[in-house]
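Fig. S4 source data, part A: sequence.
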Amino acid sequence: ADLASRGWLDESSRLADLGCGDGRWLVAAATSYACRGVGFEVDAAMAAAARDAVKRARVAGVDVVDADLFSQDLGAFDVIIAYLFRAGCARLETKARAELRCDAVLVCVGFGLSAWAPTFETRTDGLMVRYYRRRDAD
């Protein structure tokens, strides 16, 4: 099962990639689902690499912002991807509970959220990927 087969991500979706690094997850989502997206990256060199990846992939409606993900409002996004360490996930959990719409989906790659039960889990490239629905968190 993936985001599209569950109806969670399509061309009308707005995606945020928190700590987007080199942009690979952002580009993959935009390429596969034709969604609009924003990658947030605090490291200027990684943000530049992500912008290059977006340009090479020629995906429309995708932007990379040099910014701390924790200073961004997540309320406008349908799907949020986060590839963070345990401490980052703990901070994200509080932020997500306060800001995400009830129908939003949060995808955590690697570490998960301690107080939310994932809707489902899978492995991708050897990494555990957990999918959470905001409405299931309360």
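Fig. S4 source data, part B ends here. The CA atoms of residues 3 and 9 lie 5 Å apart.
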